[in-house]
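Trying the structure run again after the queue cleared.
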Amino acid sequence: MLKTISFTLIILQLLLGCQRNEESFDTSNPILVMAYSDDYYYPAGFFYEIIDSGSIYYVNTVSIKPLNDREDIWIDLSCDNIDQARLWSELTDSFSSYHRILESERETNSYFEFKRVGLVSRRDMILSRVHKESYFKPLLDKFRSSFVSGISNITDTIGQIDIAKFQSSDIKELIEYLWSSGAVGVNEKVEKTELEEAISTYTYLVSSISIIGGDWNVNDSINLYYNYFNINKMNGIITLNRQFKQGFYGKHH
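Done. Tokens:
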């Protein structure tokens, strides 16, 4: 009987120990605190949209074609004609495995948006968007971006803008909009940002935090990246250079 009780206590101690290890991390490290925070995503003043329901989806070169006609290239589409944008949204829905009804539409200075709601449940909602080309013309192939490859210190061409329409404050909002809306294909928390202006370029730094979950008896891997968005003042071409900055051990599992 005593042996059984002792064995049970040992098992409970091991389980509690594992739970404590999993929940513990270096709380003196601000990067880890940000990484594991339930309500931190962006620093103060960072531009992002508050979406009450649904998820944002930018129609693209893949979504507007039937499965058998799709090519191995994914670039978000852009135009300045709402009829063309609506057609792309309709095509995207028709070639999707789940169909949603067009409920409403709207436009901003940066995109056309078509709210599409599921046939069975209103919770199944997509905000189908098309970039306004007068604001931003996408050029990034998301199948081959640095975010997908996992390779740092390579340069992606993100897109192009009419640089004559932009001031430094507009550059800040543009990059933060592209980042927070998922238009550059990344979903990482932002530690800080920094804008620098030179004679021929704007450079906007987005320092971001990625989390790679650990397996049994392995720590999470928390990585800090510096993402340099460079905007050419002559032609409006936007490039992104993503550099690995530092790695940290996170929670233990």
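The longest helix spans residues 2-23. Worth checking whether this holds up in the mutant runs.
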